[in-house]
Amino acid sequence: LAVLTAPCGSADAGLSYRSSLLQATNPATIQHVVLLKGDDAYPAALTRTRNRLEIQAPLPLTEVATRYLASGAEHLGTGYDHIAFLIALLLWARSFWAVVKVVTAFTLSHSITLSLAALDLVSLPSALIEPLIAASIVAVALENFFNRRISGLAVAFFLGFIHGFGFAGALRDIGLPQDALLIALAFFNIGVEIGQVAIVAIVVPLLLVIDRLTARAPAAPARSPVLVYAVSALIAGLGGYWFVERTLFA
User: Fold this and answer.
1) Strand residues in the chain grouped as ranges (E)
2) What is the DSSP letter of 132?
3) Nearest Cα residue to 192 out of 77, 61, 80, 101
4) How far apart are CA 37 and CA 30, in angstroms?
């Protein structure tokens, strides 16, 4: 993580910003740009293919919505701990409605804490939240060894509160424009849900395909416990590594 700051005057007429330094070093780099003006924050992101940015101050509401939507989806897509948690939740999933109920419970709870934390109504330190997120990954992964059903609604709902604070931390790093606060918050959350739905849409059909390919009787495919246990062990190991990294080496 490299943080660069530069004064840019009043920026009343907006700014033109271009950078290719980080992308030249590593093409996968995503550069977050935040224009701070008083209490307002105007975010954007640069990639290798999009390295020039025109920043207007203040941003049109449609631009705010687009940028925060992209930031939310990008955060979920690059948040490997959240992805690992989702996969662990879904490993025993075989029913469409079971998936819908669990994902909805997780979505509702993390949306609540994301909103409360982003609006500074509730605040918990990242030094507490990040290890708890890692611990939640270990807990859900280990549950798969003792329960051959998709995780319960109560589990998904409770742990979703913890992950919501994690999403809020990412949003706080980007900043919220005070003149379009609710729009930015809403579209960041929608972006997170789009990323979440994309993960579910990949993982669940893939598991069902594996069920059919490994079924002894094609008419009655079943989930292989060996597959679930192997992936759960890997996820639990990752969660344990993240927990140690975020506590002992933080």
Assistant:
1) 15-18, 31-37, 40-46, 52-55
2) H
3) 77
4) 23
- For the record, the structure tokens of 144 come out as 């798969």
Give the count of beta carbons closer than 10 Å to the beta carbon of residue 209.
11
Coil, strand, or helix at residue 39?
coil
Q: How far is CA 175 from CA 119, 194, 216, in A?
A: 11, 20, 53
Going by C-alpha positions, the residue among 228, 197, 210, 237 that lies closest to residue 88 is 228
Residue 232 in tokens: 């759960």
- Give residue for tokens 């975020």: 246
Predicted TM-score (pTM) of this structure: 0.78
pLDDT recorded at residue 96? 83
164-177 pLDDT, tens digit per residue, is: 999 888 887 777 77
| Segment (H or E) for 105 | helix 96-118
